[in-house]
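Researcher: Good morning. I'm working through a list of sequences from a screen, and I'd like to move beyond sequence-only analysis. For each chain I'm collecting a predicted structure so we can compare shapes side by side. This is the next one on the list. No need for commentary yet; just the structure.
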Amino acid sequence: MAKGKDSVSKEICSFCGTDKEEVEILIAGISGHICDRCVRQAEEIVDTESLTESTEQLKLELKKPLAIKDYIDDYVIGQEEAKRTLSVAVYNHYKRLLNPPIKGSEVELDKANVILVGETGTGKTLLAKTIAKMLDVPFCIADATVLTEAGYVGEDVESVLSRLLQTADFDVEAAERGIVFIDEIDKIARKSDNASITRDVSG
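Model: Good morning. Structure tokens for this chain:
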């Protein structure tokens, strides 16, 4: 009897060798077990490797500010200052994405958005579309005048992001690098002065 009892193998993690009693969860497989700690470590490794592959691909495609401006010049005439500023801003933005913060580091690079100001027909939308075309990233346009808080009449932020995801053929990784162009921001202030009661469903 003693021999049979000793022959019963303990349930341990096949990766780290930790006993079942020392971990929170031990998942059984066909020929082994894995604990919750190793699952988390494996998830971190997979995420890191996936991020490395996607960033390496983007690094090959990302051009320097001068090359970005040269590309825009082929599609947009004039607006030299805007093209230079936008080229640098786009380069810095994607450079930040390519260099994720180191775990535990106190240095954080904030995300920066770009506001294009100009009269109708000056090429604001065309500039944004051209940048998206060059980077080969999803692009969608949202009208700021119809954006409202969730639950109110109009569109909310989630609907805009859903549209971007649709543009990316529901590829989440591609959508994360996409561009959302919010148009008619200046009209929000004008609209607030003469708000229509027919669109207020808040009671």
